[in-house]
Amino acid sequence: MTSLRRATIYLQLDIHRALRLKAAAADMSISDMVNEALRQALAEDAEDLDAATKRRSEKSIDFEQFVKSLRRRGKL
């Protein structure tokens, strides 16, 4: 069994109501819904960090230079 830790969170009333309804419709507990949402958010963060790490060696360009180059090429 996965070890669990109890936490207290405070939700806005409308968010809590929507979560309760969605959990009931999905036949899941609110805890399971919150855990899944957090797991997905953390996975997206991990993907973003991986992408940033891969792009670290790319040459950076100053924003002002980039905008000027867009203007020169007729893109702006």
Structure description:
By secondary structure, the chain is an all-alpha fold. It has one domain. The chain is 64% helix and 0% strand. It is built from three helices and no strands. The N and C termini lie far apart (58 Å). The mean pLDDT is 94.
Question: How would you summarize what this structure contains?
Answer:
This protein has helices spanning 13-25, 30-55, 63-72.
Largest sheet: none
Shape: elongated
SSE series: HHH
Number of domains: 1
Distance between the termini: 58 Å
Layout of SSEs?
Elements: H1 13-25, H2 30-55, H3 63-72
Task: List its salient traits.
single chain; 76 residues; mainly alpha; 3 helices; elongated
